[in-house]
Amino acid sequence: MSELDTSKHERKIVLRNTRLEDIDEIIALGKRCFPNMEPWKRAQLESHIRIFPKGQFCVEFEGKIVGSCSSLIVNFDEYDDEHTWNVITDNGYIRNHDPDGFNLYGVEVMVDPEYRRMKIGHRLYEARKELARELNLRSIIIGGRIPNYHLYKSEMTPREYVQEVEKHNIYDPVLSFQILEGFSVKRINTQYLPDDKASGAFATLMEWNNIDYRPKSRRVYRAAFPVRICAVQYMMKKIDSFDEFYTQVEYYVNVAADFGSDFVCFPEIFTTQLMSFLEEKRPDQAVRRLATYTEQYIDLFTELAVRYNVNIIGGSHFVEEDGDIYNVAYLFRRDGTIEKQYKIHATPNERKWWGIAEGNEIHVFDTDCGKIAIQICYDIEFPELARIAVDKGANIIFIPFCTDDRQGYLRVRYCAQARAVENQVYTVIAGTVGNLTHVENMDIQYAQSGIFAPSDFAFARDGIVGECDANIDTVVVGDVDLEILRRSRNSGSVRQLRDRRRDLYRVELKGLKFD
Q1: How much is the pTM?
Q2: What are phi and psi of 124, to 5 degrees?
Q3: Rounded to 5 degrees, what are φ and ψ at 321?
Q4: What is the reported pLDDT for 222?
Q5: I want to staple 329 with a disulfide (CB 3.0 to 4.6 A). Which of 119, 135, 222, 316 is the partner?
Q6: Are 319 and 269 in contact (CB under 8 A)?
Q7: Dist CA 413 CA 407 (whole Å)
Q8: Which of 108, 343, 369, 402 is catalytic?
Q9: Known catalytic membership, residue 343
Q10: Among 166, 170, 180, which residue's Cα sits nearest to residue 122?
Q11: Up-side HSE of residue 270: CA atoms within 13 Å toward CB?
Q12: Is 95 helix (H, G, I), strand (E, B) or coil?
């Protein structure tokens, strides 16, 4: 008798993390599980996978998704016990996910009605527990529905109903299951999910404690997370060599380092100072001559960042690539690594005089002081870019700029302050002053560099951390606190990030690369 081929009898069930290609199936699953409730939106599920991919699970049976769950990490002490689903999940987008939080919060669990009694829900809950152990989280917290309550609503209060379910006198398909999974009831919340008619909008706040939790974890709660920033108001004056440029740049970096700065930001295209000795009259040819100094420029700032132990936003510089000239801002980290951000929007002046090409990538950079973004001058006047960067985690947006009159300067300043308010983020502007009398299209400059914060009680009264006097050769140094920023986003007087009506609008990328 030949060996029995068991493969034809296999019925494969797989538990895995959710992927983008699963979204349509999960939306359809939600409609089957909760036909009388609003289903997931694609944008919400995309946000889950982008922000916290490890916290999203699904169960696949014979190639079909039959169960799924979503979750995020929070520091639950920062939320009211009487919270609603919309508050704790940022209206289903989990933008309030806190990687340094202590609690895994269960957003939703769904099991296909045709595949119940296969322990699909149990598998999903076990996956959450394993994730909590892996990430050393203190507990899992959920807001549990009580869908059979409507059958007893006329006879008992929600608390009486919950007590009867705990005594096993009443069966509730959700609460009974969660109790068996080791969750204990902490309280009953009202108006948790307004469209959950079966539960009367009530929910049980439940918790599973991770007995393997180690209080002395890698996370330390911070009372403050100060970051010191130096913005350079750079004097444009005639020089005769790259060595003179080196000396002037090093002076500013030395000043920033003496103040103990974590970042120093130079202005946009301040390297055009080199044109003052290149003796090229045609602007379109002068920028190509300037681009030949790119490697020297990069070597200079890499050396200074490491030697002075400060992260440098090296203003911006004209770079030639494949025959095109780009306006590029570089980040020189103090560990010697380098990143770059191309200017996305070229101004009419840049196109007319220099033929500047536009970049197609938006970056958010990791640093030893958190995530930052760089948006060059004109780019800050397009609010979508700042919103995208903050959604990806940026806490500080650096804005190197170069303007030749007060009107141009005020456009940059007002937009930088608006972006700080709209996105609950710090913004930093650094501009050029002085003049280059022998350089076409770079003859005069106007600037007042500054550091800005959201306008709320926790920050500077007028939203200005610090600013230079206008049109002089100087720097401004100021401290921003990322911990205050984090708390403000969760519990400020206004919470623009959390209160967005994503059900009505969203920023959508079309052809633009974003990492």
Answers
A1: 0.68
A2: -70, -40
A3: -140, 120
A4: 61
A5: 316
A6: no
A7: 10
A8: 343
A9: yes
A10: 180
A11: 30
A12: coil
Q: Half-sphere exposure of 423 toward its Cβ, with a 13 Å CA cutoff?
A: 27
Q: Looking at domain 227-491, which of 3.20.20.150, 3.60.110.10, 3.40.50.2000, 3.40.50.1820 is its CATH number?
A: 3.60.110.10
pLDDT tens figures, 432-483: 999 888 787 787 899 999 999 999 999 988 999 999 999 999 999 999 999 9
C-alpha span between 93 and 89 (Å, rounded): 6
- Where are the domains positioned within the chain? 11-209, 227-491
In this structure, what token pair is assigned to residue 299? 């070597």
Q: Is 268 a catalytic residue?
A: yes
- The 3-class SS string of 205-235 reads EEEEECCCCCCCCCCCCCCCCEEEEEEEEEE
Report residue 384 as tokens: 């979508």
Query: Both tokens of residue 378?
Result: 């004109």
Record the tokens describing residue 416, joined without a space. 């930088």
Choose which CATH entry (3.90.660.20, 3.40.630.30, 1.10.220.30, 3.50.50.60) describes domain 11-209: 3.40.630.30
Q: What is the pLDDT of residue 53?
A: 94
Mean pLDDT confidence for 209-220: 73
207 given a catalytic annotation: no
**Distance of alpha carbon 399 from alpha carbon 344, whole angstroms:** 13
pLDDT value at 410 more than 80: yes
Query: Of 108, 268, 350, 381, which residue is the catalytic one?
Result: 268
Contact indicator for 317, 272 with CB cutoff of 8 Å? no
Quick: pLDDT tens for 119-147: 899 999 999 999 999 999 999 999 888 98
What does DSSP assign to residue 12?
-
Both ends of the chain: CA-CA distance in Å?
Answer: 58
Two structure tokens written together for 187: 């309280």
Closest by CA position to 421, among listed 361, 370, 488: 488
Token pair listed for 136: 């050393």
Active-site residue identified among 377, 402, 415, 468: 377
Task: Say what the pLDDT of residue 498 is.
Answer: 81
Structure token digits, residue 81: 């016990």
